[in-house]
Write a structure and sequence with these properties.
By secondary structure, the chain is mostly beta strands. The protein has a ten-stranded antiparallel β-sheet. A hairpin with a 3-residue loop joins strand 7 and strand 8. The termini are far apart. 27% of the residues are buried.
Length: 135
């Protein structure tokens, strides 16, 4: 797996500062999904979304919308410490920060999913089943 070129040297706070103003969906351990715009990113521990302060490193994941699709990255499988029902078994790893992973979300709307490293259990090559050729 060649993903050493994806290292950014940034922290999660620095990456979120670049995404300030974007629509985000915060996946919190206790209350589920918290959608809203990233209003402000503080230099240390907090981000402001919908008049609430959140600690990004304590979240399960942060999905940020309206981000451009990229071909850069490596196909991986991610196993999280929380139940995710194989949702990340074949997804594109876009960047690796100092304390987070950034994945390109699949689906109708372009998005990026940021995971604090504390929420990642393992990274592996996805198992890709080859289609049988018919003659």
């Amino acid at each position: 797996m060649k993903w050493h070129h994806l290292h950014t040297g940034k922290t999660l706070q620095q990456r979120l500062a670049e995404l300030q103003g974007h629509l985000a969906e915060l996946n919190t351990p206790r209350s589920g999904l918290e959608p809203g715009r990233i209003k402000r990113v503080y230099s240390r521990h907090f981000i402001k979304v919908n008049r609430q302060l959140f600690i990004p490193l304590s979240l399960l994941s942060i999905r940020v919308f309206d981000t451009p699709q990229t071909r850069r990255g490596v196909r991986v499988g991610i196993r999280t410490v929380f139940p995710s029902k194989n949702a990340f078994r074949n997804i594109r790893l876009v960047s690796v920060g100092l304390d987070y992973l950034e994945l390109q979300g699949t689906g109708k709307f372009p998005s990026r999913i940021l995971f604090p490293l504390s929420q990642i259990e393992s990274i592996h090559r996805p198992i890709i089943k080859k289609k049988k050729q018919t003659r």
